[in-house]
Fold each of these.
Amino acid sequence: GGVITIDPGFKNTGSCTSKITFLDGEKGILRHRGYAIEELTKKASFLEVAFLIIFGELPTKSEFKKFEDDIKSHSLINEEMKNIIDGFPKVAHPMGMLSSLTSALTAFNSNTVDINSKEEMYQAIVKILAKFPVLASWAHRRNDGLPLNYADNSLDYISNLMQLLFRIPTEEYKINPIAVKALDELLILHEDHEQNCSTSTVRIVGSSEAGLFASISAGVSALWGRLHGGANQAVLEMLEQIRKDGGDVEKFINKAKDKNDPFRLMGFGHRVYKNFDPRARIIKNAADELFQDLNLNDPILEIAKHLEEVALKDPYFAERKLYPNVDFYSGIIYRALGVPVEMFTVMFAIGRLPGWIAQWKEMRENKEPIGRPRQLYIGETLRPFKSFEER
Ligand code: CMC
């Protein structure tokens, strides 16, 4: 074969061409299908942006209505899926449950998709968009001992997500528009981020022609790790630890700088953004607004701001171009909305779902070849076999 270049972590390797998301890490620019993230978060809804990301254009009113209705029509989950949930111990992490349940969907729905059939492609897309938030809410409700909940088709996508997570059957459920708006904006910020770890996973699994649900399930697993989506849970645990420790942010910053200590400032740094993460800026403002609107006070928010301020003044972080990323403030918003910390990465997954779908669709429509990187073998050369007696 030809010359093989080794690029650990694919830091300088492009895996595809794409028309979905433009990202400039130096300038801190993020656009979907040519629309600026700052504008999308202010002017569109989560599901509208999902349509844009997946199909390439903003929907007309009637296209949007059909899309929303089609999703609603698929929101039921096969009752047998509950047997799977019942099999999990109460301490199961919701990300593990979500990945398993998403994979289990393949037992009740066709997993293969004929990419030459627009209709089959569309059906798979609306099905996963409909069922994924229900399964995510089940992972949470199972651990909280709440009865499993179903979609309320009178509600929009994000309001429905709120009731899926939080509705208690014996109480009247009131949607809080401030909370819905904050969650909508936060999840828009997570919708796509080009070829990150989980998205590359979805594309590579899908490239073997494994179906959409199987590919998404793999994406959930990839997102789980603390260097990726799992960072949002890790950030809040870190901030809690700082608070319990008396709020000494310098101590934790010094720990993060110490090369003999594996500790890193969670929610800081990014593979691509080397100036600022535009999503972090929007989230920080959103957190401030939400706390004002709901008249909330959280010492954790003050600790986060103080930590950011001190870290940004420190040459260690400046030299390495380490700034707060999307995960730094998101957990503070989830917490204000009543989302338990072990559900934070699940929320990220719900937000990222449209991106995974769009990237999978693009990969299949481009008829990309199966993903199969090469390697440089550096192990033993040919050796004669030794019997047990000779070893
Ligand atoms: N705290 C302390 N030092 C850091 C941090 C941090 N959070 N991040 C990077 N560094 C240092 C790192 O030790 C290295 O230093 P040196 O050059 O002296 O060896 C230098 O900065 C470059 O780091 P890297 O690990 O080579 O950079 P990377 O592009 O491979 O990693 C990252 C990017 C996001 C994995 C990393 O910055 C990190 O671990 N951050 C903390 C976890 C986190 O917040 N992840 C969420 C990422 S954004 C959303 C998402 O993907 O889900």
Amino acid sequence: MPVTPQTRAVARQAELEELAREAARCELCPQLVESRSQVVFGSGNAAAELMFVGEAPGASEDREGVPFVGASGKLLDTLLDEIGMVREEVFIANVLKCRPPENRDPRPEEVGNCSSWLESQLELVSPALVVTLGNFATRLLRGDSAPIGKVRGRPEVVPVGRRSVRLYPVFHPAAALYRRPNLEVLREDFARIPGLLELGAPEQPAGGPRIAPGDSGAAALASDGEGEAGEAGEAGAEGEDQLGLF
Ligand code: URA
């Protein structure tokens, strides 16, 4: 049978579903196993050109089993709409697949435990562009502790697993909900997404380096442990420091 974009998409979807079934049984982080109602694997188009990576499920996501369905998710939908896209076209995942208790920040060891799921998702979906939402995803995939305020809006090509990925860090939607000026910045950064998608996927390494996000990324997170909030930040953050935005 000839391999068409459709057959490839169906095969990827089946592999992602198998991966999601495996992830649903993951018990690597005892505290998260306690705090979660379910594993929030990720959702969307298995053959998406655009993938978003957020931080961790909040209460709504934990309840529904789908990433970005709370207030941050509604804003993400709006931002997508503003650039003429819909959620069904993209793939959405998080650094952590389980909701941390009290929506606390992900811990470096949890990020390390969870990173192979994200790496597999990136490899299976093979998006042309990966937009990291906020500090946690950005630090993990850049393998560097530079804060989002310094690197947002600057696309770059980084190695993730066996692939080279075009990465585009932007503020987390929670940061925009919390602080209005961030919304304008986020809007401006989103406006560049269609142009970046037109560039297509970056050239891939032959045989490729194998750098798991967890190798350097989890260490990058360990350097200050501050991230922006998920749903907790949207609802209850009291200061910018708590959001870890800058
Ligand atoms: N914040 C995140 O980072 N991910 C979600 O899925 C929801 C809120």
